[in-house]
Automatic annotation (TrEMBL):
Radical SAM core domain mapped to chain residues: 34-230
The organism of origin for this protein: Myxococcus xanthus (strain DK1622)
Cofactor binding mode and count: Binds 1 [4Fe-4S] cluster. The cluster is coordinated with 3 cysteines and an exchangeable S-adenosyl-L-methionine. Binds 1 S-adenosyl-L-methionine per subunit.
Superkingdom assignment: Bacteria
Record protein name field: 7-carboxy-7-deazaguanine synthase
Length: 230
């Protein structure tokens, strides 16, 4: 079996006052336990992964460097109490930590969508972390950093995007090996859009009596799955 690849260590720079932003927009949260709620999204530029099923390749490059204070001001103007920081992989930018702290200080409920490939131990505890563990069909599962299993807290959720029976069996075995259902955070299962019918995944979960949250990426059913700003 191939060896896991070296981990990228999280890097926090408390004095950082800017990040590179691809887009900021208002939409309905499409997944996680917050699905269906109004949410502002801050999408940061850059990602070190190249998942086969990636739906945000446009965020790999480009964007504009913006001051954290200006970002918080723009999000206030969207008039919603909840904001998600996403990417790309937002934890690649050291300024993301001061950004999340500034959003918390401004009174927002803050969500972070991050891959399972960077340890979340430096993320403020009050941030609701949605950690996307990469399954074999992503082509990046050897990048997963299992230190996340002890860095997460009761605010958080572990996400598995399932594209095949192999992915499902792999995720189920990982959950058993690390006793993830006994952790204070929840586990989410969803399908790779247009690769695996949601009914199949739901039936596997039911058959195994697996105590995970089955979910759909609602935004992909409501809008073009390749659309931006939704």
């Amino acid at each position: 079996m191939p060896a896991a690849r070296p981990h990228i260590e999280p890097r926090r720079v408390p004095t950082a006052d800017s990040v590179v932003v691809k887009e900021i927009y208002l939409s309905v949260q499409g997944e996680s336990s917050h699905a269906g709620l109004l949410c502002a999204f801050i999408r940061l530029t850059g990602c070190h992964l190249r998942c086969t099923y990636c739906d945000s390749e446009f965020a790999f490059h480009g964007g504009a460097r913006r001051k954290i204070a200006d970002i918080v001001s723009e999000v206030r103007g969207l008039r919603t109490p909840m904001v998600e920081v996403t990417g790309g992989e937002p934890l690649l930018q050291p300024g993301v930590y001061p950004l999340m702290e500034a959003l918390l200080d401004a009174g927002f409920k803050v969500l972070l969508e991050t891959s399972g490939a960077i340890d979340v131990r430096l993320v403020p505890p009050a941030v609701h972390k949605i950690v996307d563990m990469k399954t074999p069909s992503s082509g990046e599962h050897l990048r997963n950093d299992y230190r996340n299993f002890t860095s997460m807290n009761a605010n958080d959720e572990l996400k598995f995007v399932i594209g095949s029976r192999e992915d499902y069996d792999w995720a189920k075995a990982l959950i058993a090996e690390h006793q993830l259902l006994q952790k204070p955070y929840g586990s989410l299962f969803s399908t790779v859009f247009d690769k695996l019918h949601p009914r199949e995944l739901a039936e596997w979960v039911i058959e195994d009596r697996l105590a995970v949250r089955f979910q759909l990426q609602m935004h992909k059913y409501m809008w073009d799955p390749n659309a931006r700003g939704v």
